[in-house]
């Protein structure tokens, strides 16, 4: 396996400085969310040129860091149709950019049926799911044209909130370019966290064959809500997910999440030690 980090969790600096820091902390890949990482110049759609992609590809190669995921986490269930068109255009730009950047995966979560992108009971309705599928479909078609994977990340508080719901999306669209980013903690709520290993095992059974990237973090339950942190800082045991990696995904890229500059390297070593114990 290859362990990486979200670049916007690295100590603040230019993108080039963040890539260098990630390499120095022992990470071999990165999750790149341009809008969260780059402040020194525009990353609007018109700025995502072949020249910029070529420049970034060379900079990452200089530090031997691969781009595991190009993040584009926008709300594909936004209730305003004019906003949906803008959001889809943003995905198209990221998919085109990824094809030149040498990044195979553009990642997204699955939205909410409101402008604020917040949880409400309607997130878990069939109507919300069908809206998401409808709006995702042309994005997947674009991914097919560019030869890039669009990977959805199930999150309990979003529309695709469990592994069965994710399977519905995969089967409804039926494209080899639609895959899964699996983040076990994102499938948890205060209600199911007591049985989190069962939740993870079910997700692996349902989505393991579709999973191309892992996001890794930890959690605790505070005031009836899930609070996430870097791997090794909570209550989670990693044997189920890492055994899956060892058996079925030996070279998969995984990126740690919710780390801080002062604990990121420690968290990487923690995951490596968990793997060594299997």
Structural features, described:
The protein has 278 residues and is an alpha/beta fold. It is 41% helix and 17% strand. The protein has helices at residues 15-24, 34-37, 50-62, 81-101, 126-146, 163-173, 196-207, 239-248, 264-276; strands spanning 2-6, 29-32, 66-71, 105-108, 149-152, 178-182, 211-216, 218-222, 225-229, 253-256. The chain has an 8-stranded parallel barrel, surrounded by 5 helices. A two-stranded antiparallel ribbon has the order 8-9. The longest helix is centred in the first third of the chain and has 21 residues, at 81-101. The protein is globular, with a radius of gyration of 18 Å. 44% of the residues are buried.
Key phrases:
278 residues; alpha/beta; eight-stranded parallel β-barrel; two-stranded antiparallel ribbon; 9 helices; 41% helix; 17% strand; globular
Question: What layout of secondary structure does this protein have?
Answer:
Elements: E1 2-6, H1 15-24, E2 29-32, H2 34-37, H3 50-62, E3 66-71, H4 81-101, E4 105-108, H5 126-146, E5 149-152, H6 163-173, E6 178-182, H7 196-207, E7 211-216, E8 218-222, E9 225-229, H8 239-248, E10 253-256, H9 264-276
Parallel strand pairs: 1-2, 1-10, 2-3, 3-4, 4-5, 5-6, 6-7, 7-10
Antiparallel strand pairs: 8-9
Helix pairs in contact: 3-4, 4-5, 5-6, 6-7
């Amino acid at each position: 396996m290859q362990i990486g980090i979200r670049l916007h969790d690295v100590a603040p600096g230019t993108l080039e400085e963040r890539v260098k820091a990630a390499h120095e902390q022992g990470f071999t890949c990165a999750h790149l969310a341009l809008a969260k990482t780059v402040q020194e110049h525009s990353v609007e759609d018109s700025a995502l040129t072949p020249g910029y992609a070529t420049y970034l590809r060379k900079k990452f190669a200089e530090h031997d860091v691969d781009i595991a995921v190009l993040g584009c986490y926008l709300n594909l269930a936004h209730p305003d149709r004019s906003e949906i068109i803008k959001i889809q255009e943003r995905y198209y730009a990221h998919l085109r950019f990824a094809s030149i950047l040498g990044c195979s995966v553009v990642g997204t979560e699955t939205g909410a049926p409101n402008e604020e992108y917040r949880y409400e009971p309607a997130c878990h309705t069939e109507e919300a799911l069908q809206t998401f599928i409808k709006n995702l479909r042309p994005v997947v078609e674009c991914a097919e044209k560019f030869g890039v994977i669009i990977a959805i990340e199930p999150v309990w508080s979003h529309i695709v909130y469990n592994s069965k719901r994710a399977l519905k999306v995969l089967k409804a669209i039926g494209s080899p370019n639609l895959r899964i980013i699996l983040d076990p903690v994102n499938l948890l709520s205060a209600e199911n966290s007591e049985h989190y290993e069962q939740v993870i095992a079910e997700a692996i059974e349902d989505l393991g064959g579709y999973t191309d990237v892992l996001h890794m973090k930890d959690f605790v339950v505070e005031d009836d809500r899930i609070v996430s942190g870097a791997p090794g800082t909570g209550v989670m045991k990693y044997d189920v997910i890492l055994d899956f990696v060892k058996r079925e995904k030996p070279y998969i890229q995984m990126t740690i999440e919710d780390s801080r500059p002062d604990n990121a390297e420690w968290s990487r070593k923690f995951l490596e030690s968990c793997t060594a114990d299997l």
